[in-house]
Amino acid sequence: MCIYCRERRVYPSDVTDAEWAILEPLIPAVKPGGRPEEIERREIVNGILYVLRSGCPWRMLPHDLPNWSTVYLYFREWKRAGIWEQVNAALRRDVRVCLGRDPEPSAAILDSQSIKTSSVRGDERGYDGGKKNSGQKTASARGHARAAAGRQSAGS
């Protein structure tokens, strides 16, 4: 008997019956010969989706969903087993077929960004892009340093 089969508040992140019909075959079933299922897989998925959709920390999972540590445990196990990648690939294939495309893409586009960097870490020279000024200090900082140096030499 599942302890989370009871009626509870419905959250916007909960999977619908139609969504669960698609997800259920992709989520690992209870291992045969083990302990009886206390928490339905659907409720675990609902807990995971609540965290992902709301952005809340795992420990702030509402109390009417399964315990945060249980939900997090399954999330990590399924992540390490590659379940989420399999779910993503299966859903992508389904969407492509519904759009009349081949299930697998025939091409990919890669984008990269090049940035200037120093071969030595911690280079002391900087660059002020707004003022087009390279050097250790900006113009205003040099001006203050010169003024201070001028006062010291005048006072000596």
Description:
The protein is mainly alpha-helical and 156 residues long. Helices cover 43% and strands 4% of the residues. The protein is built from 5 helices and 2 strands. It has helices spanning 17-23, 41-54, 68-80, 83-98, 139-155; strands spanning 126-128, 133-135. Strands 1-2 form a two-stranded antiparallel ribbon. Helix 2 packs across helix 3 (68-80). The chain is extended and about 60 Å long. The termini are far apart.
What structural keywords apply?
156 residues; two-stranded antiparallel sheet; 5 helices; extended
Order of helices and strands: HHHHEEH
Mean pLDDT: 80
- The whole-angstrom Rg is 29 Å
Morphology call: extended
Give the proportion of residues in helices: 40-55%
- How are the strands of the largest sheet arranged? 1-2
What is this entry, summarized?
This protein has five helices and two strands; from the N terminus they run H-H-H-H-E-E-H. With 156 residues, it is mainly alpha-helical.
Helix-strand layout with pairing:
Elements: H1 17-23, H2 41-54, H3 68-80, H4 83-98, E1 126-128, E2 133-135, H5 139-155
